[in-house]
Amino acid sequence: MDGTSRIAREMAQGEEARRTGRLEEARACFAEAITAARDEVDPLLEAQALEAQARVAQDGGNIEWALHDQQEAIQLYRLAGDGPSLAAALCEAGNLFLEQQQLAHAANSLCEALDLYRATPDASPLAVANAVRSTARLAEALGEREEACRYWQDARERYAALGDPLSIEQADAAEIRLVQLAG
Q1: 123 is in which domain, residue-wise?
Q2: Scanning 9, 119, 125, 130, which has the fewest C-beta atoms within 10 Å of its C-beta?
Q3: H-run or E-run covering 2
């Protein structure tokens, strides 16, 4: 079996294990995928496997481990020059830092993610809306109420423009947050 199909197999098995709550099995599958990607010298697949392993760590409540793996993935995306994946990974790291109340690190990650999204004309509108929402949460955590309102308004508009039910739900949640901040 070649390395790429081994990586794909381990990733699929890891995702299935994660979906069904078998976190140790998922972690083992993703660790195998990381090893196989390193053997194949495929930094993008390695980064994807690291991000998957970070999600398992987050599912298990180990945010420090999740941040470690996420930061390794960020470095690989940076080296590979994959801007969209780098932006998404930075946004995820920003959310993890925000969860840990490491606000300076969250700000660095989220600002860089937004800059990358702004520089990418074909960036996923949903990904951009999610990054804007995360930045609104950061502004709130920093006590920057006006900035938070500005970002929440932007997020609301971006989600509403997407039009699908989940995005409309996010737009409604942003609207509620705006009302709470105004009141």
Answers
A1: 83-183
A2: 119
A3: none
